[in-house]
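Review form for a predicted model. The reviewer records the input and the model, then writes brief findings.
Reviewer: anonymous (R2)
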Amino acid sequence: MKKIITIITLASCLYVQTSHATAGDSIFNTSLIHTIKFYFSQAKWYDSLIAYKPLDKKMKGNVMVDGVMYNNVGVQFKGNSSFNNPSKKKSWKVDFNEYDTLQECNKEKTINLNNGFKDPTMMREKVALDFCIRNGIAAPRCTYTNVYVNDTLWGFYTIVEQIDKTFLKHWYPDNNGNLFKGDPSGSLQWYGSAVSSYNTKYELKTNKTQNNWSDLIHLIDKLNNTPSAALHDSLDAVMQTNSFIKSWAANILFANLDSYQGSGHNYYVFHDSTDNKFNWITWDVNEAFGNFSQGMTVSQMETLSILYIPNPATNRPLENKMLADATYKSAYIQEVCNLVATEFDSTLINPKIDSLANRIRSSVYADPNKFYTNAQFEANIKSTVTSGFTIPGLKSFLANRRASVVTQLVSNGCFMGTQELQDQSSTFQVGPNPNNGQFTISSDHFPAELEVYNSIGQLTHRQTLNKKQETIDLCRAKGIYFYRILSKMTPIGSGKIIVE
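Model under review:
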């Protein structure tokens, strides 16, 4: 049977765990470009940070964030390829509680400052992470800052949320379980039951004193050693597989191959003790928009198969085995289909890109240690730029990638043609619009779920539509709101509501 998916518009930005949102809000939930100033007493502070990097050692310094001083903070350079480039503009990790265990910045213990060394636009990371969060994919928040050292402008950076117990508390009911990072080579292949076979391939980030790896090894055992006929039930018993499927779908759409989908790392898994299952967490998306090519051309990245697994496929057992299971494969295709129908669209993402460009342009231009020229910043927003690397343009990649994926989805049972759109959208009427906060929705589709978001993407109203015509009372202040209607979790309608 054909799956008919409506192409809808939803200009919103939802951070799904808003009920818990406290830590980091003043950092991440604002359009402000922050100001972070490092103060070092060491005359050769840069040389010391370079020397400390391979030792994973932090140097003590004072850090001012938006005018608030934090003394005795742990500071170090971070990254792999972003560190090894010849520029002196390195990425930073800032640990506010390294030398003072009670010290935090807006309840965040650690933040990451990324240098954008392969991104003339400085927007790949922000756009991709916002996309994930809007769609309920566990991922860190991202924003921007100008960085100064001893009151001298050093550069323009993204700030990325740390995946730690603070992050876990934000997303999950429990933050006490084991958190593993899939680095440096977390392919999830089976190497036997000995901890020594895994502790050089993964990093345990919490509960280090207990140092118990049995849950991760159990997960990998179930994945690799369960007969295919029993895989679905066995894997679902130890993992929230939908969390991986959603992350997988988003990574494939953005052709973000510096991930489990390509290089086999750059992710976290968290063992939630409330349901005794692992959850997948997206990490390190700075190579989004096809920027980690693995030897492929821009065109090949734009047309990358949604079923792509690097050769040999057995080196990525989670994807390989899921695609061999009809139920998992169907769920994955449906997730790609939903994201393309609702979010992965130039009409939605291009305005976000333009808004961000306007917000950061003056800071990008003023960066004294930037990797690219102002002209390359402007050009790469629209088209491919070659400067040491061949870097796909944000808008050109998005348009070509979406066109390719829509075509691929047709052969996998997901149809998004114009006729289907007209047939579906004609079944909804919303009025009056503008209104005073009260309006009616008439539809032949019920029961269905209505979700309403404010202009900054917060979910403000949810209601079940149980009959042909329902009256909605937002009880909200004047402004612009966005709605979407879902039937059996599939988006089937959306639009804008103006409350006067």
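Findings: The first helix runs from residue 25 to 28.
Further findings: The mean pLDDT is 89.
Recommendation: see findings above.
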